[in-house]
Structure formats: C-alpha cells, structure tokens
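Subgroup meeting minutes
Present: P.N., E.W., G.H.
Scribe: E.W.

1. P.N. recapped why we're keeping a running log of single-chain structure predictions: easier to compare across weeks, and new members can see raw inputs and outputs side by side.
2. G.H. added today's entry (257 aa).
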Amino acid sequence: MIEIRNLYKLLGPQMVLNNLSLTVRQGETKVIIGRSGVGKTVLLKNIVGLIHPDRGSIKIDGVEVTNLNEKEYNRLRMDIGMVFQGGALFDSMDVGENVGFVPNEFMKLDKKALQERVRHVLGLVGLKDVEHMMPSQLSGGMKKRVSLARVLCMEPHIILYDEPTTGVDPITAAAINHLIIELHDKLKVTSIVVTHDMNSAYMVADSIAMFYKGQIIADGKPEDIKNSRHPVIQQFIQGQAHGPITEDESLIFGHVQ
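Output recorded in log:
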C-alpha cells in the first residue's frame, strides 16, 4: 500500500531523511520507533504531502505521489487520515463540527446523513453525546479520540498516527491502543503509528521499524525487534541512558518537527 524508496529530506543543515526506504503492506499496522525529535513526524508529513522530499520515491497504492500537483494530492488526501499528536482540533468549532469538517466541506453530505456519520464514528471511539462540547471542555484523552473520530469520518483506507499515546495517562493510553487494534480488525485499514512508547508499539504492531540517523535500520515482527542484538535497538527499547545512541553527540539531530 505504501512503498518508500531512497527518500531524502534536508531541513536547514540537518539531513533528516537520509536514503530512507520503507514498505507497508495493505492492511498492516506498521509502527515506527525512534528517539523524539529525530524526524519521524517529518516522514509522515512527506507521505501525506504536507512537505515534499528533496529526492526519492513515495508510492501509495502503486501511484507515485511525489510528482502530483496540489489538486491531485488533495484527491489522494481524501483517502489518508492523519491523527496529529496534539489533536489539532479547531478551537472555534464544537466536537460535531470538528468530526464532520471534511465530509461537510468536501463530500457535501446532507445534514442528517452527516450527523448520523458523526454519531457513528464517535461511538466507534467510545464517545457519546459529546457533539456540542467545545475542545476546551475535553480532556487530553478525549481530544485524541475526537481527532481519531474526525479521521474515521472521512472513511480513509490509510491512517497515520503521530504519537497517539503521548501526553495521556496509562489507562487512556491503553484504551487508545485498543482502539487502534479494533479499527485495524474491523475496518482493515493500513496504518503507520509513530511512537517512542514501547508498550504501545508491542501492543498494536504487525511489524516494527527502527528509525535511526535518518534511515530505517531494522524492520521486523515485534518479537524480532525485542530480541534483536543490535546495540542501538537494545539501548532504545530498554530505555538505557548510555549506549551508542548517546555516546556520539553528532548522532543527535535536534528537535525536528
């Protein structure tokens, strides 16, 4: 479903994506792990076309997307949902308006059909009777769920998750992880989950890819990553302060968003 080959992206003096290659099969949940601030979000933004690579190939369902113009990319984006780290809800809109924004603006559903779709997807994420609440009235976990409901309202075939469990308590994080699994099982969507939460990674992943120095250095089943002897992987998944990642300051890219 997603095939990335030899991708490069330079931001300022930093080579954030450095000959990166990655394949995501149809219906797969691919988890990408790696240190905070090294460019995992940059990769997602390249996939969805919010920023563009300097060089390399991105194919989505067999279509080379790096050559698309904005109108063509907009059509593609209707099939890709992105759950942003902070929720990215519109403060001036209530929950129902936020969730139904894309169908209302671009699909032109009638009001009753849109309201029914909004209620349905809110139910999928475990929220009921919240349509008239404002984002300022929601907890962090509820904002994450509303953001996910907004994506589901588009009925996409691909969902990109940017740190879905960051900033929420462990119980809410577990609930979000179960939601990702349920959506995978029920809707058969293809997903990429960017995280540094290893509990979440092991729970939701069909496969895990390790992001390091702008590349994917390992890609395999969760148990393969867990049992890897690669010192970089072991330092990261064990959360060790000392090891090859931190020994050389030149390996730290800075806070690239």
